[in-house]
Amino acid sequence: MTPRFRKYNWQLAPASIRDIRQRVFIDEQKVPPELEWDDTDEIADHYLAVDQGNTPMATARLFSTMEETGFIGRMAVLPEYRGQGVGEALLRHLIAESAGRFQELRLSAQNHATGFYERFGFHICSEPYDDAGIPHLDMRCLAPSLAHQALADRTQPLILGADTESWLFHDEGTMLGLMDSLVGQAGQRLWLYDNLLDHDLYDRYRLRELISAVARRHRLSEVRLLIHDDKPLVKRRHQLVELMRRLSSRMELRLVNTDYPMEDQPFMLVDREGVLYRHHFNKPDGFAGFAASGRVKLMEESFQRMWDAARPSMELRELPL
Fold first, then answer.
1. How many CB atoms lie under 10 A from the CB of residue 43?
2. pLDDT at position 321 over 70
3. Domains of the chain by residue range
4. β-bridge pairing 45-50 and 56-66
């Protein structure tokens, strides 16, 4: 079945959108009406999926409170159309609508539906919580444009441990989307090796928040930053340096010892399966892998050797918070 999609604001939305949500959420799932209908409807774009005869089948809404982040919600498929690919087609359409518009997509998924959303590049980013008496988890896609491009030939794009094909990148935007998608899924370990912590690449608010979450996630969390040059960090405040000094037991920065063998290409390792590798220190050109355990194992041995020979940055220790 190939649905067609129509987009409305709430004031002009047909009654069928309200009817679908009434049947699925209020009648079927017993969501209280006062929770189902909220002020967000007024600011959201509402999507209606219809068949070739214009019969309504499903609905969802898409809204933004900050221009960089889009939120998908109230996604509902009528019982008689489930199992026919209608929900998949609707979610693909929402991702396509978001590509190039939002840097991040978020949604609240019922526990049983998380596997469905992972197939489209969304990963879990919260602990379970109750919403209207139903267990939920927050999920996000940190690179909607990349997910949209990949859905034609990948299952579970951008999902750590599941996306088995390598991603090639040749521009900074793609590289940053892959970097953030990897860091955002780190459970315990993030190792980074580079010439320096370039401000354009690493001095970003979103990356700081993602790394902060990694460092705080587990009592054995480990964030290691291994660089050649700390002078730019001394001259100009850097968000990762400030974060490191606040989380000194979970984050550490060292300087490469040039008297020992060292790698000629920068890379980042995430847990035991994620890697982002650049061919040059000064170019956004390389590859990323989300299920590359073999390659990660080889590179972590090289990182560990450089780390053991490295020294702390005394200059950064003296900087005031």
1. 12
2. no
3. 4-151, 167-318
4. antiparallel
SS3 for 71-96 is EEEEEEECHHHCCCCHHHHHHHHHHH
Q: What is the DSSP letter of 119?
A: T
Q: Which CATH superfamily hosts domain 167-318?
A: Endonuclease Chain A (3.30.870.10)
Cα torsion 152, 155, 159, 165: sign: negative
Q: What is the pLDDT of residues 4-15, one digit of tens each?
A: 999 999 999 999
pLDDT tens-digit series, residues 132-182: 889 999 999 999 999 999 998 898 999 999 999 999 999 999 999 999 999
**Do the beta carbons of residue 128 and residue 136 sit within 8 Å?**
yes
CA dihedral 191, 194, 198, 200 (to 10 degrees): -70
CA 200, 203, 205, 209 dihedral sign is positive
Indicate whether 276 pLDDT > 90: yes
DSSP state of 320: -
Kind and range of the H or E run holding 139: strand 134-141
pLDDT at 28 over 80: yes
Q: Residue 216's CB: how many other CB atoms inside 10 A?
A: 11
For residue 120, what are its two tokens? 């489209």
pLDDT digits (tens, 9 = 90+) for 96-113: 999 989 999 999 999 999
The domain over range 4-151 is classified in CATH as 3.40.630.30 = yes
pLDDT confidence band for 315 (50 / 70 / 90): confident
- Give every CB contact of residue 9 below 8 A, 6+ residues apart in sequence: 45, 46
- For the whole model, what pTM was predicted? 0.94
Amino acid at 75: M
Q: How many CB atoms lie within 10 A of CB 193?
A: 23
Tokens matching residue 19: 């009817």
Residue written as tokens 């980042």? 268
Name residue, tokens 């004031």.
11
